[in-house]
Amino acid sequence: MDGDSVVNKDRIIIFDTTLRDGEQSPGATLNVHEKLEIARQLSRLGVDVCEAGFPIASPGDFDAVRQIAEEIGPLTEGREDGVPMTIAGLARANKEDIQRAFDAVNAAPKHRIHTFLATSDIHLNHKLKMDREECIDQVIEAVSFAKTLCDDIEFSPEDAGRSDPQFLVQVLGEAIKAGATTLNIPDTVGYTTPEEFGWLIKYLIENTPGADKVVWSTHCHNDLGLATANTLAGIENGARQVEVTINGIGERAGNTSLEEVVMAISTRPQHFDVETKIDTTQITRTSRMVSSYTGMVIQPNKAIVGANAFAHESGIHQDGMLKNNLTYEIMRPETVGLNASKLVMGKLSGRSGFRARLEEMGYDNLSKEDLNAAFERFKRLADKKKMVTDADLEAIIADEIYQPPEIWKLNHIQVSCGDHSMPTASVSLTGPNEKEYKDAALGSGPVDAVYQAINRIIGVRNRLTEFSINAVTEGIDAQAETTIRIQSLNDEDRTSFNPQTGESFDRTFSGHGASTDIVVASARAYLSALNKLLAAREESASVVNIN
Ligand code: KIV
Ligand code: ZN
After folding, report:
1. Which atom in ligand 1 lies closest to the alpha carbon of residue 186?
2. Band (505; pLDDT cuts 50, 70, 90)
3. For ligand 1, what atom is nearest to the CA of residue 20?
4. Angstrom distance (rounded) from CA 325 to CA 328
5. What is the pLDDT of residues 187-196, one digit of tens each?
6. pLDDT on residue 542
7. Residue 425, SS3?
8. Which residues fall within 8 angstroms of residue 324, CB to CB, at 6 or more apart?
9. Which residues line ligand 1 (CB under 6 A)?
10. Quick one: which of 250, 349, 447, 519 is 20 to 30 A from 380 by CA?
11. What is the pTM of this model?
């Protein structure tokens, strides 16, 4: 096993793009409040650079980035070195995008413009319809213009993984001359292998004129499941910034996951001669927050943050663990903020004990209203369930607090079902005007009947595209956590901008809910998704089309 006695290590800059590339995952749409909360948590986690969004994409994106720059940009609380996060905004390589990105991030004490242009022949010929010379000219113009606005400039040659390395040397050399301070090498389509990607980083650092004046960065996608391996190969070959997302979310198969890279570096200190400033005890909390807000469920066997990542099922393993946890455990769960304690509280626990427990779990900045709402839920749960565990508290927090503003509220539902009757549901909701609405419907099952009744009241045409239900803890009295996705079928919602393709598409919204009753959990999840859809409809009424 590795020890931890290595000194004078190079620092790896953690550039988190959960709010930009991560939000490009289908259905991961986040509202401004959710983006602010995630950015606040990224700051607490110790992220160095937070790519807050793509400001030109829509007025909503611009406002979200600007608010993050203003409110989260100055924060230093809980950060090991007392230095605030740099807030970055993405821009295509043109003046309008770059100006917009600058206007959005400018309020942050530390801010960065991140501009990109594709360099592979496939992208140049088919997407941009431009030759190599035109590409170089555009990079020089874009980076030079960005440099007139701010000092901290990152340039990315999109699809570098499939670009001609000699051409990359030319483009990147010009980007350095024009003022770029970070050069990020994206494997946009997750095509390379670790050996190839490591080689590319080394080749570029050795051959690009002025390479020693800039920070070299990796940005790997996970199409072949190699993103983390490629990123680590990049580090071994001289990269000192890594672009990552929480839980590895992102376009298609996602981006490199922050937690995997950070824990590989910290678990194998003799192997990786570098360090990060991440507070690893914040990893689990950040992961759950991102999963709840985006509706992207974490696979149980996901490294570091999956539900089974620290579970030992087989008898042989359990026996070994009881004798010495080094037998089957390379990291302690506490290192990533996973609390070993199972039994937390019962129905006699009071408000201050409840708050203290939440604070120990890292929820130390809940508002009074959120704390009260969570406490009420805890009391109701403790009446039904003998033992309330940390996992139950996490589910309550996710259900009460990581939710969109409630345009429609669930009052109550009643269902009748069975193998000899038509599933029937009656539902009572409170609408935006504080009026109560009631309706009833039949369905193919109890959940369908509830959803039909809600549809009759709210009347938003949509398709349910995903439905998953998990038990939060073991036992018959366990809470169920439901996560769903719906796709709007209304033309007015058919919009969302993808910076790489410029396409618009039907928007997908996720929702989640928890309860000891699976039908109630499902109803809460559906309302959560519908509330997101309705809130986004207002925001997207003013989306700019930029093609
Ligand atoms: O994957 C990619 O190429 C990107 C760039 C915009 C950096 O996300
Ligand atoms: Zn990307």
Report:
1. 3
2. low
3. 8
4. 6
5. 999 999 999 9
6. 44
7. strand
8. none
9. 21, 116, 156, 158, 186, 188, 219, 221
10. 447
11. 0.86
